[in-house]
Amino acid sequence: MMVVDLVAAVLSFGVVYLMAGARVVKQYERGLVFRLGRLRPDVRAPGFTMIVPALDRLRKVNMQVVTMPIPAQEGITRDNVTVRVDAVVYFKVVHPADAIINVEDYRFAVLQVAQTSLRSIIGKSELDDLLSNREKLNEGLALMIDSPALGWGVQIDRVEIKDVSLPETMKRSMARQAEAARDRRARVINADAELQASKKLAQAAAVMGNTPGALQLRLLQTVTAVAAEKNSTLVFPFPVELLRFLERASQNADGATAPGTPGRAAGQVEEPPGGRTAGGRAPGDRRR
Fold it and tell me: What's the per-residue H, E or C state across 214-237?
């Protein structure tokens, strides 16, 4: 009986020992074993592992990518504009031993470095760069955070600037500037259109000046376009050029009929109005 009891006690102790030393490391974790306060060189892989109870202490390190938001930092840009900028940093642990041994809390350390680097980027950049050239700023910010993080066993994957908050006065000023720029472009486009239209009209006027009948055809086209709208009143423009054309045509007709005018002999001189009366005297002559 004593032997059986001893065997049962040993088995019970073994079961308790195994249960006390059994550990499970998940797929996204790595295990570090500290034996009597000293780090063991081997890193425990995912799965089932054993440690010595009361002597070993297992520390699990998460190897997943950590998404950490950077609180909004207020600063003054290089062109003296006060802004608030917030960002987000993505990082992961690549050396579990360095992340546990070299720094007390690698998450807190990365957060503080990210805030300091973000304020430094704000002071070195201009407002236009913060609003439009964010990719370059993101790369510079990632390099600034990654330099001290390498000694902590942490790798910075990427850093993204999320939002840039501007004062209300600056927003109104930028809106007025954008509106003025759009107004200027509209005026330039309108003036360019007027210039091109004037050139085309000058060319059309030159063609119509060489061909007077083209003006009449254009006038008839205009009248047809106005009449097609079913208007009750028809405005018929009478251009000055048409009057001149008719005047020239009448002068040509008078010149063609002048040599054969009846009622006057050849060489006869026409008496001016108020000529001499019968007797050869002009009205108003007085005998002396």
Answer: HHHHHHHHHHHHHHCCCCCCCCCC
Mean pLDDT, residues 158-166: 88
Q: Burial level of 138, CB count in 10 A (0-12/13-18/19+)? A: middle
* Whole-number average pLDDT of the chain: 80
Distance CA 140, CA 147 (A): 11
Return all residues near 96 (Cβ < 8 A) that are at least 6 apart: 30, 32, 43, 61, 63, 153
3-class DSSP assignment, residue 164: strand
pLDDT at 75: 87
Q: Which domains does the chain have, with CATH numbers?
A: 2-61 (no CATH), 66-170 (3.30.479.30)
The total of other beta-carbon atoms located within 10 Å of residue 124's CB is 13
Distance CA 276, CA 101 (A): 141
Identify the burial level of 17 via C-beta atoms within 10 angstroms of its C-beta, where 0-12 means exposed, 13-18 middle and 19 or more buried. Answer: middle
Confidence of residue 256 (pLDDT cuts 50, 70, 90): low
- Rounded distance between C-alpha atoms, residue 78 and residue 59, angstroms: 46
When pLDDT is averaged across residues 117-131 and rounded to a whole number, the result is 87
Identify the H or E element spanning 212.
helix 212-227
Alpha-carbon span 33 to 55, nearest angstrom = 10
Tell me the two tokens of residue 74: 């207020």
The pLDDT score that the predictor gives to residue 277 is: 42
- Predicted confidence at residue 276, as pLDDT, reads 46
Rg (CA), the chain: 52
Does the structure show a pLDDT above 60 at 106?
yes
CA distance linking residue 47 with residue 277, whole number of Å: 147
